[in-house]
Design brief:
The chain is elongated. The strands form two sheets. Strands 1, 4, 5, 6 and 7 form a five-stranded antiparallel sheet that branches. 61% of the residues lie in helices and 12% in strands. It is an alpha+beta fold. It has helices at residues 2-12, 21-37, 39-58, 83-92, 108-114, 117-124, 138-145, 157-160, 175-190, 213-235, 237-270, 277-314, 337-364; strands spanning 65-75, 127-131, 134-137, 192-196, 203-210, 317-322, 329-331. The chain contains 13 helices and seven strands. The two termini are 32 Å apart. It folds into three domains: 22-60 and 335-364, no CATH class; 65-236 and 321-331; 240-314. InterPro entries: Bact_polysacc_biosynth/exp (IPR050445). GO terms for molecular function: protein tyrosine kinase activity. This is Lipopolysaccharide biosynthesis protein. One of its GO terms (cellular component) is plasma membrane.
Length: 365
């Protein structure tokens, strides 16, 4: 009989790696009782989490951030059609090696070029329409509405009240102006990004996030305008120099041709009845000079026209695929650290109570 009972008892016992439902219920009851006894400890964890979250919310920047972006495509002769086509255009108009090298503006180089200090500085010193009938420098507009006065310049009254003067060149800036410019550049560069829209696409997206909606929209527009302007100047630099030189030559030949024609007309009027060979020789010389100058002048006019056409062909084409559209995307920074601290404190308290109960069970066994 004892043998049969021992066999039944062995059959009712579970393997060591399994827990019966009864054991689970018992452990849950024990854990509940432990929670009731440790409610003060859990409340302390929650209070600590709430206090930490409160101080985090106190220092949180609650100003909304407006994100503006503009998607564009860089085309034209900016590395898209190849240097071979540029060489053909140059030789067609007799420019020789006048086609510029665009390699520094391709790939990652162009992405760095857009947010480089010369480009951002040039954009900041351009004029922008701040209101309906008022223009101001972009950098002053940024200082007034970006929040830099309350953040980086909070303890510097000199910079807080400083504004740039319109029309002053950067080479004439004082030490204070350079300090203010560097401070604005450092901040706005961190707020501006440019990236390829997709790996399989040639579209680029210029994006910024600022605390003022009109400021964000104005900044991406004026930055892209500056990039297009500066990029075009660099791409067509050699041809522009030749164009300026040929315009000066055309104007000079035009003045010489006018003077020679006036001298010829005056000589004919004064010597209509002359028959001596010396007089006829002088008239022939003036006529020959006039013909020669006309040929040079017409050739210079044609070269100027060809170079002007070449400038158009060499200039890169910026096509705006997706312009800035208002209203901008608004990201609100609501304070939630206190609520998160309370939840985190509750979780830590529960974990601590569970570990405490487990430790006590191990020590008792």
């Amino acid at each position: 009989m004892e043998t049969i009972d021992s066999r039944n008892t062995d059959k009712n016992q579970l393997p060591p790696d399994q827990i019966s439902p009864k054991e689970v219920v018992n452990r849950a009851i024990l854990f509940k009782n432990q929670l009731i006894r440790s409610w003060k400890l859990i409340a302390a964890f929650m209070v600590i989490g709430a206090v930490v979250g409160f101080f985090i919310d106190l220092n949180l920047d609650k100003r909304p951030t407006y994100t503006a972006w503009i998607t564009f495509n860089l085309g034209g002769s900016s590395g898209q059609s190849g240097m071979g086509e540029l060489g053909n255009i140059a030789s067609m108009f007799g420019m020789g090696g006048g086609a510029p090298d665009a390699n520094i503006f391709t790939g990652e180089n162009f992405l760095y070029y857009v947010v480089s200090k010369p480009i951002i500085t040039r954009s900041l010193l351009r004029e922008v329409d701040t209101t309906a009938n008022h223009k101001d420098l972009m950098i002053n507009y940024y200082i007034n509405h970006s929040g830099i006065q309350e953040d980086e310049w909070e303890k510097d009254d000199t910079l807080r009240n400083f504004r740039f003067v319109r029309g002053k060149k950067m080479k004439d800036f004082t030490r204070l102006e350079m300090k203010a410019l560097d401070g604005v550049f450092t901040r706005i560069k961190s707020e501006t990004t440019i990236a390829q829209l997709d790996r399989k696409s040639s579209f680029l997206t210029l994006k910024t996030g600022l605390h003022s909606e009109p400021l964000a929209a104005a900044w991406v527009n004026i930055l892209l305008e500056t990039v297009q302007e500066d990029y075009t100047e660099k791409q067509t630099q050699k041809t522009s120099e030749m164009y300026t030189l040929m315009k000066a030559r055309r104007d000079s030949l035009g003045r010489l041709l006018g003077q020679n024609d006036a001298n010829l007309a005056r000589y004919i009027d004064q010597n209509q009845q002359i028959v001596v060979a010396e007089g006829q020789l002088q008239q022939s010389k003036l006529t020959r000079n006039s013909t020669f100058l006309q040929q040079l002048y017409y050739s210079a006019v044609q070269s100027v026209d060809n170079l002007r056409l070449s400038l158009i062909k060499e200039a890169p084409l910026f096509t705006i695929v997706e312009p800035v559209s208002l209203p901008l995307y608004k990201e609100s920074h609501e304070p939630y650290a206190m609520q998160a601290g309370i939840v985190l404190g509750l979780m830590l308290g529960l974990v601590f109570v569970f570990l405490k109960q487990t430790y006590q069970s191990i020590m008792q066994s």
